[in-house]
């Protein structure tokens, strides 16, 4: 099926990046959120990131302006029901995602493919609560979306081949690379990455190192572009904890036990960059470690 329009639900850090790359690739984008502020911030951030791409000579001004013109925002979920492909990118909480799919299903066009950008939650379970499990997939972008090359494509138990091929075609049209993952908790990237981040938090919790020494060790000692605590702040500590809980519950193995210190940061509302405080405090000129 040819996909021309894309509906994105959730205008947070992933939703804005998804809208950005889709519009740049020529898709008509409708971006939805429950918060007008989130929609306004997303549009401002997309403009800023496109401007930066222009100033670095990556894209032409005309391409930037055409991309911006292709993005419409809406607070009404019904407005995205007629698009060819819906990508849900709201908060990583299963009940939030179920509610979104339940609300959108009655208005959906017959041909619309439903997908979720979830980092960890069962695609089969999300699909089973819709009217179209065969047209449902995991469409998992990496953060920051405009920069990262990979998209994980996750088939639920009922996903049909046409749906997979259509999604694969979209990934290729973005100039990105798809990796196929089976539908088990946290798929491939987060099954490997998140236990490492959780272990870094345990390393901090047990006093083996402090925030600086842990991040510096992994940057200079393992050539990671960001230290694991800096990366956790970048992803969002609420999202990291949610993924660890899905791994812990879904695989029933104590090796996935979320670190109590990670839980404490989330309970404090210190969610990382998006709330200006996490393992680092971002309120000043340069980030300052909080431990
Ligand atoms: C949780 C999940 O479910 C799955 C996940 O996403 S896991 C997280 C996966 N992501 C990572 O691991 C990211 C690790 N970090 C990195 O790769 C790098 O630090 C980084 C690409 C984010 C920044 O790289 P850097 O060299 O420090 O910074 P910088 O030189 O400023 O930026 C590199 C490029 O990224 C762009 N960029 C950086 N941050 C950006 C952002 N938030 N949005 C858009 N573009 C961004 C810059 O514009 C620049 O683009 P050009 O090369 O076109 O000029
Ligand atoms: N952060 C990351 O590095 C990555 C995250 N993901 C996944 O992407 C999804 C989004 O994550 P991320 O962008 O980081 O999260 P954010 O917290 O940045 O954004 C989530 C957005 O969804 C909004 N939202 C919440 N409920 C609804 C709803 N019912 N309808 C519409 N919008 C809603 C939130 O609004 P409000 O703030 O008002 O609640 C917020 O604007 C998650 O499933 C996450 O696991 C995937 C890859 C990487």
Give an account of the 3D structure:
- The protein is of the alpha/beta class and 291 residues long.
- It is 45% helix and 15% strand.
- The chain contains eleven helices and ten strands.
- It has an eight-stranded mixed sheet with strand order 3-2-1-4-5-6-7-8, with helices on both faces.
- Strand 9 (280-281) and strand 10 form a beta hairpin.
- It starts with a strand and ends with a strand.
- The site of acetoacetyl-coenzyme A (CAA) has 19 residues, from helix 2, helix 7 and helix 9.
Concise overview:
With 291 residues, the protein is α/β, with parallel strands linked by helices.
Task: Give the helix/strand layout.
Layout: E1 5-9, H1 13-24, E2 28-32, H2 36-55, H3 61-69, E3 71-74, E4 85-88, H4 94-104, E5 113-116, H5 123-128, E6 136-141, E7 150-155, H6 161-173, E8 177-181, H7 189-205, H8 211-222, H9 228-235, H10 237-251, H11 260-267, E9 280-281, E10 288-289
Parallel strand pairs: 1-2, 1-4, 2-3, 4-5, 5-6, 7-8
Antiparallel strand pairs: 6-7, 9-10
Helix pairs in contact: 1-2, 1-3, 7-9, 7-10, 10-11
This protein binds acetoacetyl-coenzyme A and NADPH dihydro-nicotinamide-adenine-dinucleotide phosphate.
Distinctive features:
2 domains; Rossmann fold; 11 helices; binds acetoacetyl-coenzyme A; alpha/beta; binds NADPH dihydro-nicotinamide-adenine-dinucleotide phosphate; 45% helix; eight-stranded mixed β-sheet; 10 strands; N-(1-d-carboxylethyl)-l-norvaline Dehydrogenase, domain 2; 291 residues; globular
């Amino acid at each position: 099926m040819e996909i021309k329009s894309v509906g994105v639900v959730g205008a947070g850090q992933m939703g804005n990046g998804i809208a950005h790359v889709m519009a740049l690739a020529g898709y008509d984008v409708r971006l939805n959120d429950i918060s007008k502020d989130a929609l306004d911030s997303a549009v401002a951030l997309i403009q800023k990131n496109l401007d930066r791409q222009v100033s670095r000579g990556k894209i032409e001004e005309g391409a930037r302006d055409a991309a911006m013109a292709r993005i419409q925002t809406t607070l009404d979920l019904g407005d995205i029901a007629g698009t060819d492909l819906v990508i849900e990118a709201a908060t990583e909480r299963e009940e939030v995602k179920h509610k979104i799919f339940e609300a959108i299903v009655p208005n959906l066009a017959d041909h619309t493919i439903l997908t979720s950008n979830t980092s960890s939650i069962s695609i089969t379970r999300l699909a089973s609560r819709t009217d179209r499990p065969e047209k449902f997939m995991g469409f998992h972008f990496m953060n920051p979306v405009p920069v990262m090359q990979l998209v994980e494509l996750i088939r639920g138990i009922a996903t049909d081949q046409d749906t997979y091929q259509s999604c694969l075609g979209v990934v290729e049209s973005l100039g990105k690379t798809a990796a196929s993952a089976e539908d088990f908790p946290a798929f491939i990237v987060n099954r490997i990455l998140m236990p490492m981040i959780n272990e870094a938090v345990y390393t901090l919790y047990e006093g083996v190192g402090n925030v600086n020494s842990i991040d510096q060790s992994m940057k200079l000692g393992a050539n990671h572009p960001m230290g694991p605590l800096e990366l956790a702040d970048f992803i969002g500590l609420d999202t990291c904890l949610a993924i660890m809980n899905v791994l812990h519950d879904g695989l029933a193995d104590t090796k996935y036990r979320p670190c109590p210190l990670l839980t404490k940061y989330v309970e404090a509302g210190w969610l990382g960059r998006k709330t200006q405080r996490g393992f680092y405090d971002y309120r000043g000129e340069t980030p300052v470690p909080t431990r």
